[in-house]
What we know:
Its EC number is 2.3.2.27. Keywords: Coiled coil, Metal-binding, Repeat, Transferase, Ubl conjugation pathway, Zinc, Zinc-finger. Helices cover 68% and strands 1% of the residues. The chain has 55 helices and 3 strands. A hairpin with a 5-residue loop joins strand 1 (276-278) and strand 2 (284-286).
Amino acid sequence: xxSMDFNIGxxxxxxxxxxxxxxxxxxxxxxxxxxxxxxxxGKNSFQEFSRSINELHTLLQALDVRKxxxxxxxxxxxxxxxxxxxxxxxxxxxxxxxxxxxxxxLLLHSNSLLSQMQDLARDIAATxxxxxxxxxxxxxxxxxxxxxxxSSLESMEFRSAVxxxxxxxxxxxxxxxxxxxxxxxxxxxxxxxxxxxxxxNASLVQNELAILKQEKEEMEAAKKQAEALQLSQLxxxxxxxxxxxxxxxxxxxxxxxxxxxxxxxxxxxxxLMTDPVAISCGHSFERKAIxxxxxxxxxxCPTCGDELSSLDLTPNISLRGSIEEWKQNDMxxxxxxxxxxxxxxxxxxxxxxxxxxxRIIQIPKYAEKAAExxxxxxxxxxxxxxxxxxxxxxKCLYCLAKYSDxxxxxxxxxxxxxxxxxxxxxxxxxxxxxxVLLELSKIETIREIIGNTKDCIPxxxxxxxxxxxxxxxxxxxxxxxxxxxxxxxxRMAEAGYFPPFIACFNQGVQETRALMAAALSKMKLKENSIxxxxxxxxxxxxxxxxxxxxxxxxxxxxxxxxxLIAYPKMIKRLLSDPVTIPLLxxxxxxxxxxxxxxQEAAEVLALMVEGCQYPQFQLYQGLQxxxxxxxxxxxxxxxxxxxxxxxxxxxHLLVELSYKCEKARNLIRSNxxxxxxxxxxxxxxxxxxRRWAMKLILCISEGYPDGVPLPPSPGKEAAxxxxxxxxxxxxxxxxxxxxxxxISQLPKEDNVVDEVLCKSEALKAIHEVICSTDGEFVGxxxxxxxxxxxxxxxxxxxxxxxxxxxxxxxxxLGKLEFYxxxxxxxxxxxxxxxxxxxxxxxxxxxxxxxxxxxATTMSKQTNSMPMLHMTKLLRNMSWCCSASPENLFCSVHxxxxxxxETFCLVKADAVKPLVQTMSDMESGVAEAALTALETLLxxxxxxxxxxxxxxxxxxxxxxxxxxxxxxxxxxxxxxxxLQKILNHTQISDPLFQRSETILIQLLDEDALxxxxxxxxxxxxxxxxxxxxx
Length: 1029
């Protein structure tokens, strides 16, 4: 029980302490309200402060400290009340200082005093807020009052009137310039008197002088030299009014007062101190200088020489304050002196003044003063003159712009933007110039002016890749500020910077997107731009424009897509969006779609299919949808009746689909009506229509056993005649080339086709193409250089005429003398041309070999039939080999191939070129050459002679080259050939050894091992019972 009473007693003591503190705070509020009522300067601010403190007093009376103590805890409440008491006491001291003392000094330091009051008001608000009174169980009106007090004190601004600040500035100017102008001093005194509510008379001057002298003595006693200096200057100002005569004993020179007095200069380094410290004897020095003095082992004072009892350093805060105050005065003097210098026409003086101003103007009050002095237009004007310090000028403009929006507008109105951009272009002061632009671009109206300034946006974009990261970042920030404007975002994209463009596009409405897409379609894009444009949201937003009811949106979107699909990465991204293909198909299939939309959609689809590689083609669902029977049929329907420009795009689309997809080829081939329309398109007067129709026919024909799908007769005859006419009569090599390729794919076992080709001039045209590659050919004139593709396709078409099973077509061949040119293709043509030439020669030689072999057999049966009868036998086979009947004897066939009509590889001098052709390992050339040479080995009666001719033409060497480097099929054929050679002749030792080496290496190839082993066994290198068999 006693313990309980004891606890209650302690609690009572704690509450008593809190109550006493609470009452003390309440009394402080009453005194503070009383003392702030008759403030002269900043009267409105003090009155507002007084009202808030009075409300605080009312609130304190209404609240019970015990409840607060219980809610917040005694210790916390006590600490907060003590803080509030301290803050209120400090406010009273500031107010007392504000009201007492010299009125001149009051005016001079009014801003500083008011700033202190403003800080205190916020501190008091923070302390009241920390009690969290609104969370207590209290009346609503008290909670409202609490919030009002806190809000009022937090937002309170203590400011002197503009007139007061002007007077303070005039006082500063007068004392800093040591003005002794009596008339000026009197006018200033009158303004001071009016500001403080007094009369400008001798009484005022006397009172002020007395107070100032007393304060000066106090400052000197406290060794506050800077403050004492300023008070002396104010005394000098009052005496300069001549209202009161200065006593004789005060007639001292004051000129030195405007310069640093000795106490501010470090005796060691002879410079104005920035971090003054006192040593044990009382003298002060710059910290760094005295430390260096001590490091040298010195232990005496540099000034008085006394030995120091301690080397401890004490910061001289008072002296530092004096130095700072002197610096402020010096800065003011420098600024005032710089203004007329900047306005002078002397470049040296202007540059020197700019150096000073760029440093001082960073302080907001001097930025304001500079604007008041009219420096903004002058600084903008200085940007035109490269003889001046442009860097300093830009720095000044930056500080002015940073200070206020009003200054920004003034700078722009003076025409600064264009000059700043010019300096960015020059690159000498780009970082400073961009800094000015960045500050100006914070205002929307100015952003319009910046963005519309010539070359501004392209130059800023170019700076994004600047080596200076600071300049690059600032340029980025300016562009970011400008990017809210769609037109500026478009210009950035035109300059190669796309992120703002994409952001605007994604956020824009339909009309905005249409304009931006149209602009994008006209831009020149680079690979780095594509990285930005791959943005998924951007792609989806653009594709969705195809579903718009606005024709302009659709048109802009289609143009934009066409622009983008020139880049493979964009095709992938477009195809990755599941709506791309359906929306494009929708434009084509929708009956009411305008024809030009159908055309553009077809063009886009064709380009997308063309740009998509085969493995990827199978991955996208949209592309699979294009191959459906419905869509292929739709595309074919739109080909038939359409205008040429529409027909072209759908033919192009069908061609690209056919290249990539067997299903599409089969669907087209099976559509007989479409086939008929395709061949009728070959008679079109529009070259592009003919060309795309032929490309489609060729595409659906290649690789199919049945060859070209022809319309039924009489359309078939007309189709073949049209192809022959294009090859024969047209001047465009591309068209002729495709026609030749289609002719090569015509159905092989179709007598109607053979008959039409026989009657046509197709073979003559093929002859012309082959011969035109031979510069020595006489009789055929080539009006234009023939392309490689035309020659290759002409040779492919020739193969139809050299088929051994088609003697009628071979007879057509016999009427033309182009074998020499054909053989020369083996030396001059492409790999494909060589291959096809070798196949043609093989077919011709095969026919001859069979005939000669049959003739030889017949000769034996009739006991050496006379040559005349042999000639009659062969007369019906019109093959030509040579234009001359001379040299009728052949080293292989003897006189059997002598007739003019007989083709022979030996007589045609084709053996050596074929052997040389075997060194070409591309496109099956070597295999075709071996096939041609094998035709000489068909007749066992002439086999030895044929092998001798081939060996003499370096055939063994060529075969070994094939075995080393050829394809599997070529190597197989070469092994067979080598085996026949070894059966009928001996090869030289070097060739034998080389053959052995190559063949042993080939034993490692599974597919060839057995055949290689047979040859090695034949050579006596591998035994017949070898495991290789």
